[in-house]
Amino acid sequence: MGILALHVQVSGNLSPYIDRFQDALVEQIQVIFQKRGYQVVYFTNGQVLTPAQKHQM
Prior knowledge:
Elements: E1 2-4, H1 18-35, E2 41-43, H2 51-56
Parallel strand pairs: 1-2
């Protein structure tokens, strides 16, 4: 299973916390799927995937 980088938009007063929030969210999602037996790969950009990799995921 592949997880792409998140792009969460927040108001200006939450900007300092968005990176930590996104990292924690991705980690929680990854742990959930790994506990269910999936292999999880994290990508920052979906364009780096080949069509075969996209189909496999």
